[in-house]
Amino acid sequence: MDQVVIARSLFGTTMGFHIIFATLGVGIPLMILFAEVMKLQTKDPDYTTMAMRWTKGFAVLLGVGIPTGTIAAVQLSLLWPEFMEVVGKVIALPFQIEIFAFLLEALFMSIYVYAYDRLSPTMRIVSVALVAFGAVLSAVLITNVHAFEATPEGFRMVNGEVVDVRPWDAFFNRSFPVTATHVMVSAWMTGAFTIASIAAWKMLRMKKKDMRLYAFHRKAMMLGLVVGGVFSILTAFNGHDSAQHLYHDQPEKLAAAEWLFETETYAPLLIGGTLDRETLEVKNAIHIPWALSFLSGNRFDTEVRGLNTWPRDEWPPLFIHTLFNGMVLIGGLLTAMSVVGFGWKRILKRDVFPSWMMWGFVTAGPLAMLAIEFGWIFSCTGRQPWIIYRIMRTADATTSATNLGMLFVLFTAIYVFLCVSVVAVLRYYFNRHPLEKELADL
Amino acid sequence: MNMTVTDEIIAVTLIWLFVFVYAIAAAIDFGAGFWSFFYRNRKKNNMSRIANRYLSPSWELTNTFIVLVVVGLVSFFPGVTRVLGAVLLVPFSIGVLLLAVRSAFLVYSHSVDRYKKTLILISGLTGIFIPALLILVLPITYGDMIDTSGGVERLLWGELLASSSTYAYIAFAVTSTLFLSSLLLSDYAHVSEDHEAYRVYRRDALILGPITLLSSVAVVVTMQFDAPWMYENLFANQSWILASVVAFALGYWAVYVKKPRLATLAVVTQYLLAATGYGRAHLPYLVYPGVTIESGFTAESTFHALFISYLVGFAILTPGFLYFWKLFMTDRQYLKKR
Ligand code: HDD
Ligand code: HEM
Ligand code: HEM
């Protein structure tokens, strides 16, 4: 296979794997923080139990999240040396500051976990708040580099040499605020829905209704649904801003996402459908008239550029349409779900949820994670053929080292192994330490 | 070389410092993993537990430092990424793979009692292989094992495997790992008042000290043939090396007369002095003969921004480190528990 294709597959696989744990690493500490705060507010000891059990699970996830992140950092330097040379000269700051975020997270994670019984309630909240802060800070900073790839600023390229470097201009590049916000709120939303999913699953699987346990899981689920619901709404609003930023800064990505080939005003939004690659004809898609124009510029007569205005070799791959659809659809679905759940409990005042609704909640976490994957692959693959938009092509940044095929196999095998083992360990631990026992021990 | 303090020198000194901190922390970390494996079957005493207790809160922090080394090198000396990226791809990939397996198992072993032994076996053995792999960067930067024909750099595996330097460095990495960790754990056991564990780790340190010294001599001897340029430079910096030997002697004596804290400090100083001499001898080359600290250096404005971010970052984190230290390294109640 082609060197560049293997390098891209290898890196994409690494990131696709790391992001699962990274997202949970951002989302779960926030939920632990909320549980600790709820404890302080309500004096209900169930919330302490929740915080401790989630922390245990989180600590196991860290055992995979941290090493895969380390792999990501090493691979970035090893696979894309030409890219990293520019990164090193221009956008090294976020990477460097990220280290401090990692240190902050690691320090207070150890303190929270291994010194839990020696901390005062306030120090517990401070520690876990710093863990959550460190995690989200590291996500925002790494996203900073990703944003820079889309809107590179703060330097000039003269004859292949980087000159006139202004590192802070590079740091505060145009798309950083909107992109970082999107990553942040979508990760929080995913963490919350993951918690809700697990709680819903436990409630469904309960053999005989033990109201004590049911109530415990219901509290966890409601916390997840409420937090997830709030962040899913924020994600949707901010996603709209992200799309507008595409319209201005990477119009061909937007055009490819919507399979828009001719430049149009009153352009429609397409959902689903199939594409004939020869004739570029779209079949069976649902058209929402004028919506794409409105999405892009808040006016129905906004002119949106079609793909045909760019040379073919600058087109992103066209399958990103499906990824974009998937992400947006899931976002809408999850918002609806949390509204329904919240209404059922708080407005209709029902304490038991029908099982069709519960099954819906069970899917919330996995769906949110799927949206994260869709979003990232959409964003990274949609940037192709550029590794730095309109400045450096991916093909020109790739390492000259051979043997990549072997490494791809090795790394993938390890990811599969880690994935299986982490699930096995979590299951083993929580089977051995069932909630019944922990509540009885109180 | 003539050491005027330029930005390049400051940058390379910082990198060297990170490498040094990582090397020490990782040696102790990996070594503790190994000892916890090595003494897994002893029923009566707590060697394994002492090692584990040290490892639990610290591995995450240690891991951050390898990221710091990689990121620091790339941001201060982006000119070196192409060469090192190409030649280190395979050895470092295998290194981080092992690291991933090890970290995962280290964490798992806290949750799954039944498999604890298997898990400890894996994290213990990988802990020995990783230092052996990572240290290869040093003989590789000698330059002779890099093929530059055709404008692309390639690692000459044959040369690497045939070179006596390779084996000297591997021996050095492994023995240092074990020596440093047994020293620190003896100190840790001493503070925890676990007399049996202290006795055993002290004995290990006594055995390993001279072996480590021997392997470092082997590194210098092989250097004479494989990198004469560096050997000459090392001679110019011999006062650092001599001072380091003195520190070793002091440390070894302290182990002998049962002053574990002094011993640990002296031996860390020994490594610091030796690393300084070694580092100075390596300059100005990052990778001989193609990449020097001047040719690989980052943009001036980026360097200044980075430097400020270091000052601010470490200033903010210092209270956190102190709190951590207080909770885990000096709280006698905690150390003595169980
Ligand atoms: C739970 C996950 C999730 C959900 C429900 C959504 N997104 Fe998203 N989206 C992401 C998770 C995500 C992400 C994984 O975090 C991405 C990938 C790169 C990035 O910056 O964020 C992303 C990227 C991303 C981009 C590309 C930015 C770029 O390439 O620079 C756009 C235009 C949107 N999103 C728009 C939306 C819209 C209109 C949504 C409507 C609800 C939406 N997203 C829901
Ligand atoms: C963590 C979530 C992420 C996922 C799932 C992801 C996914 C991918 C995928 C699938 C590719 C291959 C693209 C293709 O060849 O079609 C890729 C490439 C790449 N991504 Fe991302 N990515 C993520 C985050 C990031 C971040 C945060 C950065 C910035 C530091 C980044 C930088 C890159 C680079 C440099 C490449 C290689 C060059 C290229 O193909 O353009 N990625 N990523
Ligand atoms: C936007 C996508 C990303 C997010 C949200 C993210 C977030 C995180 C988080 C929260 C952690 C802490 C570990 C955990 O909780 O599991 C982590 C670890 C790590 N990530 Fe990522 N990350 C992303 C992409 C990347 C990329 C592209 C790189 C490589 C350049 C990277 C490098 C690392 C490293 C080196 C660690 C380990 C840090 C340590 O040693 O403590 N991450 N990441």
UniProtKB/TrEMBL annotation, chain A:
Q: What is the lineage of its organism?
A: Bacteria, Bacillati, Bacillota, Bacilli, Bacillales
Name under which the protein is recorded: Cytochrome ubiquinol oxidase subunit I
Which stretches are transmembrane? Answer: 15-37, 58-80, 92-114, 126-148, 176-199, 220-237, 318-344, 356-378, 406-430
Q: Which organism is it from?
A: Tumebacillus lacus
Q: Which domain of life is it from?
A: Bacteria
Q: How does it sit in the membrane?
A: Multi-pass membrane protein
Pfam families, from UniProt? Cyt_bd_oxida_I (PF01654)
Q: Which family does it belong to?
A: Belongs to the cytochrome ubiquinol oxidase subunit 1 family.
- Keywords carried by this UniProt record: Cell membrane, Electron transport, Heme, Iron, Membrane, Metal-binding, Transmembrane, Transmembrane helix, Transport
Q: Which InterPro entries match?
A: Cyt-d_ubiquinol_oxidase_su_1
Where does this polypeptide localize?
A: Cell membrane
TrEMBL record, chain B:
Compartment annotation: Cell membrane
From the record, give the transmembrane residue ranges: 12-38, 59-77, 83-107, 119-142, 166-185, 205-225, 237-255, 262-283, 303-328
Q: InterPro entries in the record, alphabetically? A: Cyt-d_oxidase_su2
Gene Ontology terms, MF aspect: oxidoreductase activity
Per UniProt, the keywords (alphabetical) are: Cell membrane, Membrane, Oxidoreductase, Transmembrane, Transmembrane helix
Q: How does it sit in the membrane?
A: Multi-pass membrane protein
- Top EC group: oxidoreductase
> Where does the source fall among the domains of life?
Bacteria
Q: What is its EC number?
A: 1.10.3.-
Family per record: Belongs to the cytochrome ubiquinol oxidase subunit 2 family.
**The protein's name in its UniProt record:** Cytochrome d ubiquinol oxidase subunit II
Per the UniProt record, the source organism is Tumebacillus lacus
Mind giving the lineage of the organism this protein is from? Bacteria, Bacillati, Bacillota, Bacilli, Bacillales
